[in-house]
Amino acid sequence: MASKAFLIAITVVGIAAPKAFATDYVVDWALGVNYTAWAEGKDFYVGDRLTIADPTAFATDYVVGDLSGWTLGVNYTAWAEGKEFYVGDRLSTLID
């Protein structure tokens, strides 16, 4: 009877342990990144989770010139100042 209980305990630990000790890795997807170098020195185990962050998932929609739209007399350099643009962001225009 004791050996049966021991076997059940080992089975439960074997199932629960990978989740308890799992590591979550988040990788930002970008062109030109050496992912082999990123993975070097890391030990991956069953239960670990690898998430590839798609830059378009965090994309921002910008309307160039905001309410002024795309027209003469708008300082687009001033409009862009303070904004950080990333791959995947979408730029659109309002045309009168």
Can you describe what's shown?
This protein is an alpha/beta fold. 30% of the residues lie in helices and 19% in strands. The chain has three helices and four strands; from the N terminus they run αβαββαβ. It has helices spanning 2-20, 35-39, 76-80, and strands spanning 24-28, 49-53, 61-64, 90-93. The strands form two sheets. Strands 1-2 form a two-stranded parallel ribbon. It is elongated and about 80 Å long.
Summarize the structure.
The protein is α/β, with parallel strands linked by helices and 96 residues long.
Q: What portion of residues is helical?
A: 25-40%
Structural class designation: alpha/beta
Proportion of residues in extended strands: 15-25%
Q: Can you count the beta strands? A: 4
Tally of helical segments: 3
- Tell me the span between the first and last alpha carbons: 83 Å
The average pLDDT is: 78
Which blocks of ≥5 consecutive residues have pLDDT under 50?
none
| Principal-axes shape call | elongated
Order of strands in the sheet with most strands: 1-2
